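Chapter summary example: a protein plus S-adenosylmethionine.
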Amino acid sequence: SEICTPYPPPYPTSQNLTTCLDSLISSSTPLTPWTHLPHCIYADQSPHCVYTNAFHSISIITTPDEASTSLNLLSHSINPPFFAPKKIYPIKPYKVVSIPGKGKGAVATRRIQKGMAILVDTASILAQAEYPADVTREEVQDLMGAAVGRLRDGGEGVRALSRKGRSEEEDDELEDILLNNSFAVVLGGKNYMGLFVDVARFNHDCRPNAFIHFSETTFAMTIWAAKDIEEGEEITITYSAAGMLTEERQQTLEKVWGFKCKCSLCTASPSIQAKSDSNRKEIRHLQDQVGQLAQKGKYHEALKSAERMFELIETEGLTDQMGDMYEVPARLYYLVGNLEKALEYTLKVQNELQGYGVPGKFGMEKLRMLDGFIKKIERGLKRKRKAKEGRGKK
Ligand SMILES: C[S@@+](CC[C@H](N)C(=O)[O-])C[C@H]1O[C@@H](n2cnc3c(N)ncnc32)[C@H](O)[C@@H]1O
């Protein structure tokens, strides 16, 4: 059968392997990193196939071109040295429990510090988000069935996830589960739907205390604490674009995800919602202002606006990939000669980037560039110290 029985950890014995995988593969096809023959449908001459690596328990639905180029990373990328967030607790810091009005959700089982990784979850399914017009819904469902069935547990983990629960006859069970639990990710410049079995238990909040980050290098989604989270508190992420205002956010969640949001902000009083909307409008305004002021050479004013923006971003729980955000003030502080602050912010950028694990080619280049900038600031600081000492002696 094409469906693998679960492998005993860490890896199957060769006996198990050959009974489980398509026999052809091991003999002739150069198929690394895939463990099964691709399962394909043919749209106009451009096939879409399921590629599975059963060892890593991941199935990817994509075109042969994509599988052979951008996804070829898989053979070496999921090995532990490649994804090593430094700031992760040795024991899972949350449990999944029932949350009134939201189904299940994740609750902290200890105090979680801001900046710590809560969870690193490698994708089970990555499915291209768009198909050519002549691909039927049944064909996509067929691909999804193969993708899920070839996972190491035969798809049990995926099938246990929550459903939207619309009418039984209308919906394909797997399609429903995938739509209700997948997150949009970008891989090789293309849009994919990513299903991460553990991440799928985290509910949405319009003012979340954690945020997600997907790594193209490891195919893993990491959940980071954006604030200190107390034991017993629900850990939440955001499903909607960060900057939206209350009404727009609620409509989008209902349209795209199909649920009425019952998060802390959506159930708060109108005055709290109005304050949040006004904060978010100000963030948008400040974002533009920082750029404009910096362009005009008004660095001190740009920095004042940037600091105010960070404050509001933190209040609204919109922290996301802080590393990127800190780059502008790092440069501005350098330009105004505040090297201590420039170093502090540059180290924050570096720390965030390193924390995500090896962040692909682009990230590596950025790390090298940051390294150069840090050395430059440190040389400047040394000169400053020497000059001060010189003045002291006189
Ligand atoms: C990715 S799942 C999250 C985990 C899910 N609650 C469970 O039981 O497994 C997404 C679904 O959770 C529910 N959900 C998530 N956030 C919610 C919120 N803020 N308000 C109400 N329901 C929510 C919705 O039913 C949504 O379709």
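Key point: The chain has two domains: 14-235, 270-393.
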